[in-house]
Amino acid sequence: MNDPFLQALASGGFQVEEYARLQYPGGVLIEDPEDRENYDYQDLADQTSELLKQENVVIYEAAFYIDDLFIRTDVLVKKGTHIQLIEVKAKSLDPSENYNFVGKSKKIVSSWKPYLFDLAFQTYVTQLCLPTYTITPYLCLVDKTKSATVDGLNQFFRVKKDPNNRTGVN
To answer: The whole model's pTM is what?
Structure first.
């Protein structure tokens, strides 16, 4: 594979997350602390709480902490008392398939369990922290049936790291 964009996508899901953020522009990123040994869950949750005082806000990497439960959400969209939790995954699916998440046996398809359980846990913790809000969870996935109408479209996007070692798409 000689395509740097595709190589970057193959190396991890963070590029898909960066792309997803482009779908929800103007968001505020809750930055990870530089000192990973002194990771302060409460500080990250407090930053999120402060932003949630706004009537409408988009938050990237929102943090919630309650009863020793801690989560980070990829994208949070708040409109009034409604919150969309958007968990971004590099995993792809074909939306026309009948049995993406639940198989013919009516059981959750095992390959999707980690993603669905992760989002369910995020929803649970967020609801504990914000009991008066309506929380709606979403998975943001790559639609493998789509194709670009422009040849070489991926060459218009460059995955780069900034001085803080944060990845972005130009």
So the answer is: 0.78
